[in-house]
Specification:
The chain is mostly helical. The protein has 13 helices and four strands.
């Protein structure tokens, strides 16, 4: 069954109103675990699909992103080889690269059936690979005192995305701001975001909308998580502890809350895998191919994020320094193609 909706004339390849084809929606058998797994798989795959379209390259997503990163304005305005690679930054990069190797190891060293088990820890490894690399970037940019907590780093990274000297390209720049009454989307390549089912099968036409859905639901969770602390900040007119927060006050605080980004989505998935919905990642896939698709998308996002940071750091400290740093990591031969070793030539 196809549900037709009025279409708007637009020059964008991402139509404002997407025709909903029920055959495009993944219908799990009904368990909560499958619903959660399919939701996050759709989000991650949509990010990769949109990235490939925005930055096309015959060799794939990572080279395409690398070329786009090097074409950004920062490459002209940031002084080349202006700093040394600090010992701490080098250590952080090796930590990121080693974690990426662990993330990819099950794809090479085990059977396809192993991926279903690897997915339990894949979000943790993916998040920490990126967290360590972002910290190395912060050390390189700002010295020896980078953000030390996860929330501080998420805020720092999000604040960097819209800056002219930021190496990050779309859709990494995608952000959701505002309150539940008025969410707004920034850095989304001019796409007008429309509502979509979280279970829609990712396609080029709906990829931006699925990513926006991922960021919006992540922001919703963030804001609800802040409600308790915001409630404690105030009292009633009689001076007693409040039991609820007026909607207008909650909206005002939500408007001031930092933007929600891909990094927040990865943190959300990392927390869920450890503390909330590990069973979904273990048993939510509909089969080995389904599990592998989730894992592949996550690994690809990590590689493309790391290459963005590597190119910036390479520009600032010189290629020789960062190559020497990478050479100190003895990546097994079978995993060279899924590691920093595969990216050196595109820095």
């Amino acid at each position: 069954m196809v549900v037709h909706q009025p279409a708007f004339q637009t020059e964008s390849r991402y139509p404002r109103i997407v025709i909903i084809d029920v055959s495009d929606i993944r219908f799990p058998t009904g368990s909560d675990e499958e619903m959660v797994f399919q939701t996050f798989r759709s989000y991650l795959e949509a990010f990769c699909i949109w990235s490939r379209d925005l930055h096309p390259h015959e060799e794939g997503l990572v080279p395409g992103v690398a070329a786009a990163v090097k074409a950004r304005p920062w490459a002209v305005s940031v002084p080349r080889e202006s700093k040394d690679l600090s010992e701490r930054a080098g250590e952080l990069l090796r930590n990121a690269w080693a974690t990426e190797v662990l993330l990819n190891a099950p794809r090479i060293l085990g059977s396809r059936d192993l991926i279903g088990f690897a997915n339990l820890w894949a979000p943790v490894q993916a998040y920490y690979a990126i967290f360590e690399a972002l910290t190395a970037l912060a050390v390189t940019i700002g010295g020896s005192s980078p953000p030390k907590t996860h929330q501080a780093m998420l805020q720092w990274a999000g604040s960097r995305l819209p800056e002219a000297n930021s190496p990050f390209v779309e859709p990494w720049t995608a952000r959701v701001v505002g309150s539940p009454a008025a969410y707004r989307y920034e850095g989304v390549a001019g796409v007008t975001i429309e509502p979509i089912s979280n279970l829609a099968s990712p396609r080029l036409e709906n990829a931006p909308h699925l990513l926006a859905k991922a960021l919006k639901t992540t922001r919703r969770d963030q804001l609800e998580g802040k409600r308790g602390s915001w409630l404690k900040d105030g009292t009633t007119k009689a001076g007693t502890k409040r039991k609820r927060m007026p909607t207008a006050e909650f909206s005002a605080k939500a408007e001031k809350f930092r933007p929600t980004t891909l990094f927040d989505l990865l943190w959300r998935l990392r927390v869920r895998s450890n503390y909330e919905e590990g069973d979904a990642l273990l048993s939510g896939a509909l089969g080995p191919r389904d599990a592998a698709a989730f894992h592949d998308a996550m690994a690809e996002i990590v590689a493309a994020t790391l290459v963005t940071i590597e190119i910036y750091v390479c520009h600032v400290v010189g290629k020789d320094a960062i190559e020497a740093c990478a050479d100190a990591l003895a990546v097994p031969d079978g995993l060279q193609a899924f590691s920093v070793a595969a990216r050196v030539d595109i820095w």
